[in-house]
Specification:
About 35% of the residues lie in helices and about 20% in strands. It is an alpha+beta fold and about 425 residues long.
Length: about 425
């Protein structure tokens, strides 16, 4: 095993205690283990890289990773293992995650209770996940080339108090999904099917699929679909949709009822989902599909203008940012080879923003008014969207629209 890990400081999140905490109170402790230069680590099957020892909950731990898979790993998967190096046994609840730029967990393990045995000398007792994640997924989540694995640990609840701490989960999403496609309670029917040319005829025919839905649920979750449904006192309304396939419409409607699309469905249909959600007002799914699309595509000199124009047409600020980053990083290769004649002039602001992020010292001159006026201008799209979402503001729109909305909110709060 190779040990090339940088030691990370092992600390729990900062806490404020109200009252006296129970004896041996630990709660969740979080450690970030950083595998630097992950792409260059050996990818031979069953060849691992191991961290230095680190401490948490009063015990010594190590983490090992198999970039090319452990002995029992499926093809293309990365293996991961947490090992105890302590001379005392410990029973913990633990899990680990790798997150994206929005701090969303993309891959990870369910919190698992495991009792690690006491160890003598340099041995360890370990819990291994042979199929922790696909290598292709991991490669898209690297931070400056480093794989950051977030490890969470806590002492599990014990004894008869377990039952008294049980709290049932909120069943709202589950109850909403029961209504998905429920014919008995629906007050609108969508007839969905793309128009097709009949073979040997000029006349068009269409094959449709019916989707039963509810105006009340669509009102705040799919605004444009809601507007097509008419008034509630008109009874059951039938609406024809001819520009979306039944498969994509079902994904969009399912999400509107609180459903979660699988990573596979998002990746396979990202662009179609973006187009449908942009037209029919399913904003959050549009942005989720956009994030997936950004991760899955490869921007090149040949396709960068096409992608940039598409991003501009659908208000895909994150995708536009990715293209601008590519232009800045490859400017010497692009000069003289790509025509920008079809690119709207207002995109110059996005390009200057990407340049400014690379030269933060030039973004201000020490003047407080100037620094205040540009505080949003060089922020990443993900950061702007997160700030808008936390304030309950609209997250769909261009970079300029998002900044204007944040500044307007600041002005209102400061008056």
């Amino acid at each position: 095993m190779t040990s090339i890990m940088a030691r990370t400081k092992s600390t729990s999140a900062y806490r404020v205690h109200v009252g006296t905490p129970p004896e041996k109170f630990e709660g969740w402790a979080t450690i970030n283990v950083c595998f630097h230069g992950f792409a260059d680590l050996p990818t031979n099957r069953n060849e691992s890289v191991t961290s230095p020892d680190f401490f948490c909950l009063g015990h010594k731990w190590i983490m090992s990773i198999w970039p090319g898979g452990e002995e029992d790993s499926p093809e293309g998967f990365v293996g991961l293992q947490l090992g105890s190096r302590s001379n005392k046994s410990i029973k913990i609840q633990w899990g680990c995650s790798v997150r994206d730029v929005y701090s969303n967990e993309v891959v990870g393990t369910e919190p698992d209770i495991y009792e690690f045995a006491a160890i003598d000398s340099d041995a360890d007792d370990a819990r291994c996940y042979s199929s922790f994640a696909k290598r292709s997924t991991i490669m898209k989540l690297l931070v400056q080339g480093s794989l950051i694995v977030e490890v969470r640990m806590k002492l599990p609840c014990t004894g008869s108090n377990d039952a008294t701490h049980f709290v049932p989960t909120n069943q709202f999403n589950q109850n909403m999904l029961v209504l998905f496609m429920d014919e008995e309670t629906a007050d609108v029917v969508f007839e969905v099917g793309e128009e097709q040319q009949t073979k040997g005829r000029r006349k068009k025919a269409k094959s449709t699929t019916n989707f039963h839905a509810h105006r009340l649920i669509l009102k705040n979750n799919a605004s444009e679909l809601y507007d097509m449904c008419g008034k509630s006192d008109e009874g059951i309304t039938t609406v024809s949709i001819t520009d979306v396939t039944p498969e994509i419409f079902k994904h969009m409607l399912y999400y509107s009822y609180g459903g979660k699309l699988s990573d596979e469905d998002l990746e396979a249909n990202a662009k179609h989902i973006i187009n449908a959600c942009d037209k029919y007002g399913v904003v959050n799914l549009k942005l989720e599909a956009e994030a997936c699309y950004v991760k899955s595509i490869t921007i090149t000199i040949d396709n960068m203008i096409e992608i940039l124009l598409y991003a501009d047409s659908k208000n895909l600020a994150l995708l536009k940012e990715a293209v601008m980053d590519y232009i800045i990083e490859n400017k010497h290769s692009i000069i003289g080879k790509v025509s920008f004649s079809d690119v709207p002039s207002d995109m110059m602001t996005d390009l200057l923003t990407a340049m400014a992020r690379g030269h933060p010292s030039e973004s201000g001159n020490g003047d407080e008014d100037m620094e205040e006026s540009i505080k949003y201008n060089t922020m990443r799209v993900g950061t702007l969207r997160k700030m808008l979402d936390e304030k309950g503001l609209d997250v769909d729109g261009s970079r300029e629209a998002m900044i204007a909305l944040l500044k307007e909110h600041d002005d209102i709060m400061n008056t």
